[in-house]
């Protein structure tokens, strides 16, 4: 049932993404903004998609470093963020699942004790702003900027969590080796 709701919500997103192609006389929108960059637009789009792949990889690594008992979603589920237009809806679920998994892990893993928040605010910010960014006007352009800032903010947080979890795992591995040697 949830999948059906997500797919149904993806329909207006798909229409919004296609709108500039269906109504070329309309001003604004992401396509109009990319047109301003000319041939460089393809390079910008490619770099952006590459960054999304690296971000998804970091989210998957984060979930995989969380104990199975704390995982609210499988690490592989984050790759759904590459499916247009479905990703605009699924991104909310991914962000919530990662945040909830980290919150649960923090109850058992001291490496996460220093984190008071688990990325939910920045994640929901960029997810919401990316939907508003589909509006073909100045509001959409401003929302694009906010979406990118929120996304970068969330990614920086995820990288900090990854470092904390990796450091903790290294300490645990060294402790295990030391105990086995003794």
Question: Would you spell out the secondary-structure blueprint of this structure?
Answer:
Blueprint: H1 2-22, H2 29-35, H3 40-65, H4 87-106, H5 120-132, H6 138-181
Helix pairs in contact: 1-4, 3-6, 4-5, 5-6
How far is the first residue's CA from the last residue's CA? 54 Å
Give the H and E element order. HHHHHH
Low-confidence parts: none
Strand fraction: under 5%
Radius of gyration, in angstroms, nearest whole number: 19 Å
Q: Structural class, please?
A: mainly alpha
What's the story with the biggest beta sheet?
A: none
Q: Determine the number of helices (DSSP H or I, runs of at least 4 residues).
A: 6
Description:
By secondary structure, the chain is an all-alpha fold. The chain has one domain. It is 72% helix and 0% strand. The chain is built from six helices and no strands. It has helices at residues 2-22, 29-35, 40-65, 87-106, 120-132, 138-181. The longest helix has 44 residues, at 138-181. The chain starts with a helix and ends with a helix.
């Amino acid at each position: 049932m949830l999948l059906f709701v997500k797919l149904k919500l993806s329909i207006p997103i798909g229409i919004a993404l296609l709108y500039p192609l269906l109504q070329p006389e309309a001003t604004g929108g992401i396509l109009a903004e990319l047109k301003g960059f000319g041939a460089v637009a393809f390079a910008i789009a490619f770099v952006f998609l590459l960054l999304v792949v690296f971000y998804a990889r970091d989210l998957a690594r984060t979930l995989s470093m969380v104990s199975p008992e704390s995982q609210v979603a499988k690490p592989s589920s984050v790759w759904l963020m590459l499916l247009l237009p479905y990703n605009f809806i699924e991104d909310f679920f991914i962000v919530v699942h990662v945040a909830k998994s980290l919150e649960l892990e923090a109850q058992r893993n001291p490496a996460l004790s220093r984190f008071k928040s688990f990325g939910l605010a920045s994640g929901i910010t960029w997810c919401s702003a990316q939907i508003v960014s589909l509006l073909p006007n100045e509001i959409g352009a401003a929302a694009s900027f906010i979406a990118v800032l929120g996304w970068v903010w969330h990614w920086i947080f995820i990288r900090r969590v990854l470092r904390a979890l990796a450091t903790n795992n290294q300490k645990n591995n060294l402790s295990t080796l030391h105990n086995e040697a003794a």
